[in-house]
Design brief:
The structure is a homodimer. Helices cover about 35% and strands about 25% of the residues of chain A. Chain A is of the alpha/beta class and about 400 residues long. Chain A has a domain of about 170 residues: 3-Layer(aba) Sandwich (Carbamate kinase). In chain A, a hairpin with a 6-residue loop joins strand 4 and strand 5.
Amino acid sequence: MLVVQKYGGTSVADADRIRHVAGRVMNRIRQGDQVIVVVSAMGDSTDDLIDLALQVAPDPDPRELDMLLSTGEQVSVALVAMALKTLGQEAVGLTGQQAGIIAQGLHNKGRISRVEADRVRRELDAGRVPVVAGYWGVNEAQEILTLGRGASDTTAVALAVALGAERCENCKDVEGVYTADPRIVPEARKLKDITYEEMLELATQGSTVMHNRAVELASVYNLPILVTSSMVEAPGTLIRQESELEERNRVRGIAHDTDVAKVTVRKVPDRPGIASNIFEPLAEAGISVDTIVQNSSEGDLTDLSFTMSRGDLRRAEGLMPAICASVGAPEYTSDANLGKVSIVGVGIQTAPGYAARMFRAMSDAGINIELISTSEIRLTCIIDSAKVPDAVRALHAAFQLETAE
Amino acid sequence: MLVVQKYGGTSVADADRIRHVAGRVMNRIRQGDQVIVVVSAMGDSTDDLIDLALQVAPDPDPRELDMLLSTGEQVSVALVAMALKTLGQEAVGLTGQQAGIIAQGLHNKGRISRVEADRVRRELDAGRVPVVAGYWGVNEAQEILTLGRGASDTTAVALAVALGAERCENCKDVEGVYTADPRIVPEARKLKDITYEEMLELATQGSTVMHNRAVELASVYNLPILVTSSMVEAPGTLIRQESELEERNRVRGIAHDTDVAKVTVRKVPDRPGIASNIFEPLAEAGISVDTIVQNSSEGDLTDLSFTMSRGDLRRAEGLMPAICASVGAPEYTSDANLGKVSIVGVGIQTAPGYAARMFRAMSDAGINIELISTSEIRLTCIIDSAKVPDAVRALHAAFQLETAE
């Protein structure tokens, strides 16, 4: 079968690991599979390049930043292809441009618009392993566009879809997706499979196993993704469409995030337009707001809370006096030391009892809930940051996630 | 006027120097000039990339090595363009491909075949400073070809020719071309100007100020090159066509090289074909032979000597027994500890007295001459490596090069 294997920065961090990756690809080929390899930049090299840019320019030009950062993946591509050839396997390193990754949009924020797969297919047909640079493509003017942090996953999925690969394998420094972070819950269990939607909620909520856009893209084309270890041979977690036959209404995992700050605008006159008056200035300042909760009104007044990363709080607070004035709110409060914990599973919102069990578990653990937010497959509590590990353990136990499926 | 300024690796070795380069380019633009910038990879980064490749593969694939090494210049290009924009100057970093540098030939040894200058011209017309990656281009299949060490100079000259620039400025960590290496001869004088031919002999013989192919290309198109410091403001050395009016027949400089090894094949039967029998196996082994001298025959036997870099001697010696057998020579000798010293100047070979003065100066300094070799504008003596500094000083004094022109 044809597979796309994507190796992240940790998996190609030095010469030893690059040779290990080459050996791993060889094993697959010996088993009769065809492999396309997608690689990220080595280890911390993208951060090192950003540091260098900031030394030269306090606010680096986005186009030139793309020109700079795209070299990181090109280095990996050349080295992995060399390592494969040294093992006697014909291979060819391909830049984002050579691999036909066509992107559009703004610099640093490109999106893949299509894949011109001729070159990659030609190399495959000639028996060469295409080793493709993740993370970037070119637009119609042949300008380099990077696709955002973590977007090498998206390159891999896009190539797999364009070439009709059977699946995409995301080879990482973890063995798969777990019911909770194993560093917090030692009993956390590796999931055999998970739906795209559950994966999206887990990733968004703090498990950084797989880039969101890659999961979304795979979901649209129903492309299975195997999350697996590049270091040890072990079964991974298969991300795939929900099976009609499987049992629904189960909590699949606990996600968490300890980096949450909250602002509450107090006593906002409850009339149309207040939400846009509050969130437009924040968006213009580039502050990414996460959860938004509007509490029940007291008479004509309502409280509106929203969360963000801690790093954005100071800038948000700078804007709040003007925002409060514009909506006629007398005051706002903020809290920088929050976190969140979520239970994730298809169907849990519509099924009775999950919310109650979650709140009971939190209460039994002595944890106060600041905000509650829900999606179709997720229930989230915003809590004191310091209580997050306790909450994850309490929920993992309450839903008996340590028990095999 | 339109100029191409080339900055070498030392000139862009860190963020401070890159900002300095940007400031220097700005100064030129404020004076009303149009500038195209060509840059090398930062400091030792090309060597670092080669080290990395050797860790991954003992004999890195040439195509992938080009893929790897070309990133070095791309990093510099992005950073210099960022630095210019931070100063308020519109600029655009261009890869070898985007700048239309079309190359042909083998990987690691590409040659520029033409420059498709449309993009660079368009950027200039729009008021943007094109910052172009030296050292590499792409072939017709859009594959990356590097042009050999030091070939960023050649990129700069090729761009200058293609765009009709008034001159190319090679901005370096030295202030120009000197009558001899100032580290050996403190009285060495910076030359105001020098012909292409003299520059070629000086460079080949050990002054590594400017890449040979760049000088040759400039000579064909009669493009003046100014060698100048990127660090201090000082007049440099102009490399240009010989002026009819100027005084010829002068020694312009002393070149030297302390890395010379010699092999002498003794008592070779003097018949057609012996030279090819000797040099073909060496060439096939990738050994670059420099000076070749066939001494006068004793009867039907001749001695044939040739020199190379010390690093090639061991491999050459490995081939010598077979070579001696194939030409019927009973033995060979070798010497690893030689150097060479040359006097360079247009017309000196045909003018009487220069050779005699050179040999007298060597004799007065007590230096034994092993081999003599000449070109139209050069006289070279191969001598004991340890004596090279004394020889350079003796010749500099004998030809009174410390005196102003």
